[in-house]
Amino acid sequence: MTVGWKRKQPAICGLSRRLTAIGMTRFELATSAPPVQRSNQAEPHPVVGRISLGVGGKSGFRTTNSTETGHLSLGWTGLPGTIRRRFFVPGNGISLMTVSDPAASRQQHAMKHRPADRPASPSDSENSSDAAMTAIPQRSATSRPESQRVGFAGRLRRSWPLLIFGIAIGAGLGIYFLGGSDRGLDRPLELTLRPIPAIYSPERAMGYLETICDFGPRPTGSEAMKRQQEFLTDFFTENGASVELQKASIRHPLTGEAVEMANLIASWYPDRPIRFLLCAHYDTRPFPDRDRKDPKGVFIGANDGASGVAAWMEMSHQFSSLPADVGVDVVLFDAEEFVFSEGRDDYFLGSTHFAQQYKMSPPAVGYRAGVLLDMVGDRELQLLYERNSLRYARDVTKSIWQTARRLGVRAFVPRTRMQDIRDDHLPLNQIAGIPTTDLIDFDYPRPGFRAPQYWHTTEDVPEKCSGTSLAAVTWTVHQWLVEQSGK
Ligand SMILES: [Zn+2]
Which structural domain, as residue segments, surrounds residue 298? Predict the structure, then answer.
């Protein structure tokens, strides 16, 4: 799965919201036209100060690569009319901030347009009281030191932009450091308002997740993937499904050799008139390439790989009692991220193959809708509306969140997240025409500056996941399926 910032409209990060709330300044994250160009525009005011800031690099903003996200820019807006420059991050986490002063601008303008043969007269600097209070590099060496000409009030007036600026930076740093604390990890989060019914078992679901992780890393074509396929084939068969592997050959991105991939399709009641596609990917990324310390280390994919599978396993216990007109397929996609190099290797090979086959030879009863699970095991689960899901499967998406609301499952947050998520639901929507929504919590464990980041790192392990999250999702989606009966 990859992610892209929404273009045009600046995405405002959590820090921004908090700073805006105290009415002091505003931080923006945007990917509009290369912002470096804007910084080269003619300056309306001369620069009187510059400050460099490191802002945490790529992972702080979760860019996948600079070509996809364009340049990041951080914009700063101060009090009206006095400080308004933007400063930019050209992709690698360094920013430049410029502070300008309109009074200095006027003075400089006056100096520039004075007749060359006339020396600066005292009246020039008295034309504007603002100008008299401004430090100008070109000021005549014979003029009195500024401190003798302006009093305390004047100095304060001249320097207040910098004062405000300093306070803003101080507040920003405070939030930056406070925002990264591990709060929330120790205490269980309130994912549901009511107890989850006992038929959805957090312990059992978590057991499934751990069993899958015990196979080790499960990239496409690996021995561990084969063992996982055998295990899941047996498991779903015992739970009443007919299971098949939909195989295809793909190219290994590094060696060019042929690699066999296989989607696992487990079907319940293929003849029933209302059918749903329940899917997830079950391969794991070859390497934890976002891990700062160990990007070639072991990637277990507890959340990104095992969580969706475990949730469908847990839900399969309910399929024997589905409404009489509802049938389901659980489809586990291979090669969702057989990606060794970001930007070079293709995502979604398994789901693309599945979508093409579906389009070429549609089943007797087509899917009414699809539900994709990805990264649903996070202990701090917060599922927001995902933009591509709203674009392609708005009704499906909204109705699932409505079910969650009715049940009191607060892990489903009826708010749209900033980024587009590119995931297996894209080929299903675009190629197969199956309106498919993506239930995904991309903030693993949570958004914010300095928050830990487990996505695509060696930290994506079962200890970072929770059976309660899996059961909450299972409960919601199962109840939603039941509600579709008779419609
Ligand atoms: Zn991933």
Answer: 202-483
